[in-house]
Amino acid sequence: MTLFLLVLLAALVFEYINGFHDTANAIATVVSTKVLTPRAAIVWAAGWNLLGALAGTAVAKTISGGLVDAASVNMLTVLSALLAAIVWNLFTWWLGLPSSSSHALIGGLCGAALATAHGNWNVLIWSVTDAKGAHAGLWPKVVLPMFSSPLLGFIGGALLMWLLTIILHKTTPRIVNLIFGKAQLISAGFMGFGHGSNDAQKTMGIITLALFTATTSGAFNDLPEWASFLRVTEFKGIPFWVVITCAITMAAGTAAGGWRIIRTMGHKMVKLQPVQGFAAETTAATILYVTASIGVPVSTTHVISTSIMGVGASKRLSAVKWGVVERIIWAWVLTLPITGLLGYGMVRLSHLFGY
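The chain above was modelled as a monomer; its predicted structure follows.
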């Protein structure tokens, strides 16, 4: 029971860090275009994050039972996965790099599960087809979206900006800024909703995995009747108290801000106008909404970053500061392997000390 409480605490710490680490995803563009002040933007994003986190549980179900063999997972596995993700998120936040919290958690979980299974790679679910014919596993739910979603973000952002440029080419810059200064409030809210609906669900899934592990291992056998809500015997539903807790925690983290990453995304990568911010946010939020509804845990960071790149490149390639982009891409490439190694190492180290 003590280990479960540590897991729950680590999960909430991860969710809080996810909130302020990924705040930039929702508000960097609306801050950089001066449509909202930083404080107002954070409040706006936090509210929409909360609503998005309450919107569904498809992604949570993928995390809790669709990536690793739950029968081979114990509390130490889950705790190590969370700690690996927390360490990487804090490190990249300190550097001001918008890395993926989603991939940090998934990488940590895979590495920790592999160590728990003593190097048996079969513990990782690469690709399966369920009874309904839907594809699940790391390949269709993580690896393919890791490449396809940033590509969609870049192309979608560029196409939408190109279309808006054609439509507005006879409109004065003053009128364009006036219209899209207001419209960007909607797109920023939509982006916050998309972030909440995707990212908050990942922690819901990891907590549910911990509840299932504790239930099946017998850790909850002596629980009093009033605490029976902690028992989870299958993955067909995410407990409502888990949904509420994660939603509130992420919203609180978002409200704390994340200025290092906001500066990188909102100012250093591309200089944005309100119409460009609208195009980037609308593109990214649409991708996030669609993927969340089908249970694909894509990276919010990857999608909004490439949408911003696409919007900037639609004008001219030199508008994008490719040196900054290169640093960001390296953080993306390294996230899964490094957190996988961290998760693996933490489990192995615990085994050496007799845990």
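The beta strands are 128-129, 135-136.
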